[in-house]
Amino acid sequence: ASNRSLHFLRNRIRHRLLPMLEGAYNPQLRRHLARLGERRYLEKNHFRAMILSAWPQVVLRCDAMGAQLDVEAFRGLSGLLQEELLTELLSRIGIRGVGDRHFDAIRRLASGSAPHRSLDLPGGARIVRNYGRISVLRGAASSSPPYHYELAMGVALDIVEAGLRIRADLAGRSSFPPTASIERFDLDEITLPLTVRNFRPGDRFRPLGMQGRQKLKDLFIDRKIPRDRRGKIPILLSGDRILWVVGIRRGEEAKLHAGTERILEVACWPIPQGEEGE
């Protein structure tokens, strides 16, 4: 009975709209719609295969917390394939309500010359471009969504989420602004590439000069750092070892000693006003 009831939209289309259109415009309408549906099905499968082929080069990370894309690899895709890949990626992350204007804005963000920009998506999600990486972040911008970047030697990295710029280089090779917070490390005791991310529950490190390990949560409490700021503070790592809770406390790892031959300087300072989000 439900297949005949005109209470349902599908039945009104089948029993009223289609017969009217067939009688007034095209008697072969149903056959053409069936062929169109079949063609769309084949196209979708074709795009799906292309997405799976491109995925390892374009998508650097994708999990329940968010994703990260390679800008150049993403630029190399056609516009339609970019949209299909983004649709698949956002679906996996659980971000809903993204439409054509959002896809267009993401493509402009990826194709533009500005090294760091961000835009908001429905549900409080964000897209953040930082040089050659695009991060897709779940949750409201004010809730300090997770971020994770590689820090290349000699290249300034803007942590847009924290409003900070960070750079690592051999001692004496770079000059830093007077506002910079600087720490020095034994380069030969570091595993490259360095990474920068924000706080994760359970994080521990060994503060400089201490024998034991300390929870970062306890460090933040001791320093009276507001809860809403803790998730924005950058953390510098070598592998899984925390070297520096940036601007707060450095760790015992890779400290300088009498036998140190190569010194790595890492500096952090606020992104100059007017440059953030460009």
Question: Can you walk me through this structure?
Answer:
Helix content is 32%, strand content 26%. It is built from seven helices and 16 strands. The model has no long low-confidence stretch (mean pLDDT 86). It has two domains: 55-142, Uridine Diphospho-n-acetylenolpyruvylglucosamine Reductase, domain 3, CATH 3.30.465.60; 149-270, Phenylalanyl-trna Synthetase, Chain B, domain 3 (Phenylalanyl-tRNA Synthetase, Chain B, domain 3). The chain is elongated and about 90 Å long. The strands form four sheets. Strands 1-2-5-4-3 form a five-stranded antiparallel sheet. It has helices at 9-24, 29-58, 71-75, 79-93, 100-111, 216-222, 227-230, and strands at 59-63, 66-70, 116-120, 126-130, 133-137, 148-151, 157-159, 164-170, 181-186, 194-197, 204-205, 214-215, 235-238, 241-245, 249-250, 263-270. With 278 residues, it is an alpha+beta fold.
